[in-house]
Amino acid sequence: MAENNDLTQMIAGCKKGVPECFSQLVDIYASRLFGYFYRLTGDNEASDDLLSKLFVRLVEKISSFKGDSFEGWLFKVASNIFYDYLRGKQRQKKLLDARKKQLESNKQKAQQFDSEQFDKLQIQLKKLDADTRELIMLRFYSQVSFKEIAKMRSEPIGTTLSKLHRGLKKLRELMN
Question: Which CATH number does the domain housing residue 162 bear?
Fold first, then answer.
C-alpha cells in the first residue's frame, strides 16, 4: 500500500496524464481488484476483462476523483463496472432465451409444415397411375438409379426418363 502522500502525488500525476503515475496505481491495485472481480465472477477471463475495463475507466474518470478515499472511489468504480457486466449478461441471456424460443417455434412450425406437405404429397401420389407412382418411388424414395430402373422395367433409359419427367410434372400440378 502506498503512503497517503505518495498516493496523492500519483493521483495528481494521473490527473495531469503522466503515464508512470497510472502505471504505479495499476501496480498497487491490480492484484486486489483482480481478486475482487474473481470472487464475484469465479472466472479468470471475465475478471481480466473487468480489470482492463476498470483501468480504462480510471484513465477516463480520474479527474472526477475529488480527494476523499481513493480506495473507496476506485472500488465504487469497480462495483459499477461489475454491475454493468451483470446487466450485460442478463441482456445477453434474455436475447438468447428469446432467440431459443423463436427457433423452437420455427422448428415446430417447420415440422407441422413438413407433416402437412408430406400428407399432401401422399394424397397426390395416390392420384397418379400405378406405373408413374412406382417410378417416382423407385427413384426418389428408394434412390434407385435411372439405369437400374430402366433395366428392371426392360425399357430404354430414355423411355424411363421421359415417363419419370411426365410423372413429376403431373405431381407438381397436383401439389399446387
Answer: 1.10.10.10
Provide the 8-state DSSP code for 142.
S
pTM above 0.85, yes or no: no
pLDDT tens digits, one per residue of 139-148:
887 888 888 8
Exposure string (b/e) for 153-174, b if CB count within 10 Å is 16 or more?
A: beeeeeebeebbeebbebbeee
Which of 141, 136, 146 has the alpha carbon at shortest distance from 168?
136
* Rounded (10°) CA dihedral 2, 24, 83, 68: 40
DSSP 128: S
Owner of C-alpha cell 423411355? 159
Residues 59 and 139 in one domain: no
End of a domain among 40, 72, 95? 95
Helical (H) or strand (E) element with 174 = helix 157-175
- What distance in Å separates the CA atoms of residue 146 and residue 32, rounded to the nearest whole number? 74
Domain that holds residue 132: 128-175
Q: How far apart are CA 172 and CA 142, in angstroms?
A: 20
CATH code (residue 35): 1.10.1740.10
